[in-house]
Design a protein that fits this description.
The protein has 437 residues and is α+β, with helices and mostly antiparallel strands. The chain is built from 15 helices and 19 strands.
Length: 437
């Protein structure tokens, strides 16, 4: 029997007949609304959750390939966003396919070493093709192994797990996915546990990669250290959300989110004359041979960087490009605060603030209310997804240098999982084997 008792007042989102996308609710003020379940839609059984995860991050981190991992994770978000928005790939457009204008933005999220997305009904086959192409491309272009899969929400709900989704709107329709409920974590566990939900690699078109880049140099911490935080509630449902809301309020009292933004107001983003060799190699790996050669992709990257650098040198504006406004918008559209069942943060804090945050997290963990992991970095890295520069369509993914999110996740995963207090009757299987049977 399906459990639907966790979030009784949320919108039940089903897809009207004939629609190929569904409009999710939007959160504009993260501090005020991100932990209000009424701002979310509870996904219906015809939806699915797409999971992408880098395999072997430990070895890649040891080899210093953290930027490759972030770039591949950003590529997963870009490709999923494009296919769920109805945008064809450059290869498909070269073959005469129609590229639809995005209208209903999808809920996709960058996880540092992967991605997750809410897949509306009717789009599973298209997403499976893109996931298979991503797995093939990442290995072929960079030697990065991916694990990708698609889990039906119906399977999660049949075992008592739920997924609530919303869009964090940074302004102008530039969005990132927000997720509440324990279903996202369980979907990730199922994809990692075995082949049932996994997608196999297969060469194919990849939409969205033409706007992916990492040309900005890592930005040093301005206030002391970059602190990546992952905190998941032990309790489910509204009790878990209450725990997270209380945690965010107490974190805000230690350091306001606006002050802890790792990119500040964007003015510390200083454009270089030419992107570094590593950044250009990553962009070349995302080139579509049917549209641009690797050399042409690199040439465009260099020209774009030189234009922004020239605008900066001339006081901020050159022709239609306003470098100061663009840097401000990069900071405003960075995903340094997000939710994936629990809290995911990248914060620029003082050493004293970092210590107070970790003391708070340890106290909450000792009380049995949450599990957490943290990681410190000296810099924040940026991966950019630019849909249309001139139309102000761009979102930016941040991580602590040296795979800060991944290191925080490893710390969390090493801890034993306490039993969740749950006074309500519910039908839930506790093992992966039973849940997917």
């Amino acid at each position: 029997m399906e459990s639907v008792l966790e979030f009784p007042d949320t919108l039940q989102l089903e897809l009207p007949a004939g629609r190929r996308a569904a409009t999710l609710p939007s959160v504009f003020d993260f501090r005020r609304d991100a932990l209000d379940p009424l701002m979310y839609a509870r996904l219906g059984p015809a939806w699915s959750i797409a999971i992408v995860d880098v395999v072997g991050s430990t070895e890649l981190a040891r080899q210093g390939q953290d930027r490759e991992v972030n770039f591949v994770a950003g590529a997963a978000v870009a490709a999923l966003t494009a296919v769920l928005s109805g945008v064809s790939s450059p290869d498909e457009r070269a073959a005469g396919a129609t590229s639809l204008r995005p209208h209903d933005p999808p809920a996709c999220q960058f996880t540092g070493d992967g991605a997750l997305a809410a897949v509306p009904p009717g789009q599973d086959d298209a997403v499976r093709q893109v996931l298979g192409a991503l797995v093939h491309w990442a290995d072929d272009a960079f030697g990065v192994k991916l694990r990708a899969g698609l889990v039906p929400v119906s399977a999660l709900r049949a075992s008592g797990w739920q997924v609530l989704a919303a869009l964090h709107d940074f302004g102008g329709g530039n969005v990132s996915g927000l997720f509440l409920g324990d279903g996202v974590e369980q979907a990730d566990a199922w994809v990692k546990a075995g082949a049932r939900w996994q997608v196999h690699p297969a060469a194919g078109p990849l939409p969205g990669l033409e706007g992916l880049s990492c040309r900005w140099n890592p930005v040093p911490a301005a206030r002391g250290t970059i602190l990546c935080v992952i905190a998941d509630p032990v309790a489910s449902g509204e009790q878990g959300v209450t725990t997270l809301a209380r945690l965010l309020a107490r974190l805000e009292a230690i350091v306001p989110g606006a002050l802890a933004s790792p990119l500040g107001d964007g003015m510390r983003l200083l454009p270089g004359a030419v992107p570094g060799r590593r950044a250009l190699r990553l962009e070349a790996g995302a080139a579509s041979p049917q549209v641009l050669t690797r050399t042409a992709r690199v040439a465009l990257a260099v020209c774009g960087a030189l234009w922004i650098r020239a605008a900066h040198a001339l006081g901020g504006r050159l022709g239609p490009v306003d470098a100061r406004a663009y840097r401000r918008s990069i900071a405003a559209r960075s995903d340094f605060r997000k939710l994936a069942g629990g809290v995911r943060l990248v914060l620029d804090v003082s050493e004293d603030e970092a210590g107070r945050i970790e003391t708070l997290l340890r106290a909450e963990e000792a009380a049995g209310r949450l599990r957490f992991g943290t990681a410190r970095s000296s810099e924040v890295t940026i991966t950019c997804m630019v849909g249309d520069f001139m139309a102000d369509r761009h979102v930016h993914f941040v991580d602590g240098s040296g795979l800060g999110f991944w290191r925080a996740a490893q710390e969390l995963k090493a801890k034993p999982r306490p039993a969740a207090p749950d006074p309500r009757p519910r039908t839930r299987t506790s093992s992966v084997e039973t849940a997917v049977a």
